Amino acid sequence: MTTEKIILRSLLGHEVERPPFWFMRQAGRFLPEYRKIRASVRGFLDLCYNSELAEEVTLQPVQRFDTDAAILFADILLVPHALGQDLAFLEGEGPVLDPIRNISGLDALRPEGLLEKLSPIFSTVERLARSLAPEKALIGFAGAPWTVATYMVEGRASRDYPNIKNWAYGDPAGFGKLVSLLEDATAQYLIFQANAGADALQLFDTWAGVLPADMQERWVVQPTKRIVDSVRKVHPNIPIIGFPKGIGPGLIRYANITGVSAVGLDTSMDPAWAAKYIQPICGIQGNLDPGLLSAGGDTMLASANEIIDDLKSGPHIFNLGHGIWPTTDPNHLADLVAMIRNYRYSRLD
Ligand code: CP3
To answer: Are strands 87-90 and 94-97 parallel, antiparallel or unpaired?
Structure first.
């Protein structure tokens, strides 16, 4: 496969002259141009379902920072919303859902309406596939079942995850029905994003790390593997990036079993460790602390340089260890981008 897209070349294991880069939450409140569009609509969901505006905010960071990829502007909670669960994003509070606490709550979900309700998202992807320059990749995404289920069951962001743990540990067969439903919905959603023109896909499993190792196997690794297998049946070559935040050395098993093309490395992980134990299996994406980006300056640049040096002997997509904070000065990101763009791998092979 020949492609001008440096991210895809890297993910396919081809030689690249510098690390490709994009940033989690690159479209968002830290950009004044995003805040302007956001202020023109009533709620965050109205922005997600408006293909024209969603296209515009997706392109904003690509235009400002010349990132190598655009990430579709949407949210992981659109899947539960499209399944029929009530969802609102409240100012200063984040997402609020009408919680599902047990198996009888599943009756309220309507999987048959999923793709129809998500059709504006596929229109956004189609528009972006047309408008992006040929060297830019379009990354589609979804939340992984465990992380999406935490919001569906807790009804909001949580600290201890009491309701989902009581259900998953107390009635694994019943909870497994919710996870299985989410596996199917997520695979369909990702397949349709790829049909509409997404070049690569990312699965966000932000809360994977709140589970003990054996439960990570059941609720993180196996569901991810089943989603990857389903997507690859339809799109055999599409790169898939998995981001199971907080699982530490569990990343080795995740990389081996799920079949993802690359794993996102969270802030806490040592890139030199990942070079040794993960890069022989798959690519790495990450992992500058968003706090270092917020602080900016030479400390940020030195840390970023070290990450690139540590990961230069295998596929590496530069990114953060988690999303950009809304309070970040966009000039810090411009400084970081200038450094990465000028970096040259010295390997001769
Ligand atoms: O630029 C991008 O990365 C693309 C768009 C994107 C958003 N959310 C837009 C968004 C992506 C990839 C996500 C993923 C997402 N959403 C995750 C996984 C990644 C992560 O950050 O851990 C999660 C857990 C969610 C759920 C979610 N969405 C929460 C908890 C919140 C509230 C907290 C917050 O940051 O406000 C959101 C809202 C949200 N999603 C915003 C944006 C730009 C802010 C809302 C606004 O602009 O009004």
So the answer is: antiparallel
The alpha carbon of 143 and the centre of ligand 1 are apart by a number of angstroms equal to 11
Task: Supply the pLDDT for residue 265.
Answer: 98
For 45-57, write each residue's pLDDT tens digit: 999 999 999 999 9
- How far CA 240 is from CA of 121, 143, 221, 235, 264, in Å, comes to 19, 13, 14, 10, 11
**Ligand 1 atom 5: residue of nearest CA:** 73
Evaluate: CB of 204 within 6 angstroms of ligand 1.
yes
Residue nearest to atom 24 of ligand 1 (CA): 206
Q: Are 152 and 82 in contact (CB under 8 A)?
A: no
Pairing of strands 240-244, 200-205: parallel
Phi first, then psi, for residue 291 (nearest 5°) are -70, -35
Q: Is the pLDDT of residue 348 over 70?
A: no
Diameter over CA atoms, the chain: 60
pLDDT value, residue 347 = 58
Q: Is 98 a catalytic residue?
A: no
Angstrom distance (rounded) from CA 272 to CA 257: 22
The answer to whether 214 is a known catalytic residue is no
Kind plus residue range of the DSSP H or E element containing 87: strand 87-90
- What is the CA(44)–ligand 1 centre distance, in A? 10
Task: Using the mean position of ligand 1's atoms as its centre, give its distance from the Cα of residue 75 in Å.
Answer: 6
Half-sphere exposure of 321 (CA within 13 A, CB side): 20
Catalytic status, residue 42: no
Q: Could you check whether the bond before residue 287 is cis, i.e. omega within 30 degrees of 0?
A: yes
State which of 23, 25, 150, 324 you would mutate to test the pocket of ligand 1, scoring each by most atoms of that ligand within 8 A of its C-beta: 25
Is the pLDDT confidence value at 100 over 80?
yes
Whether 286 shows a pLDDT value over 60: the answer reads: yes
Q: Which two tokens stand for residue 99?
A: 């919680």
Cβ 76 under 6 angstroms from ligand 1 = yes
Indicate the pLDDT class of residue 91, thresholds 50, 70 and 90. Answer: confident
- Cβ-based neighbour number of residue 47 at 10 Å: 21
Q: Which residues pair with 143 in a beta bridge?
A: 204
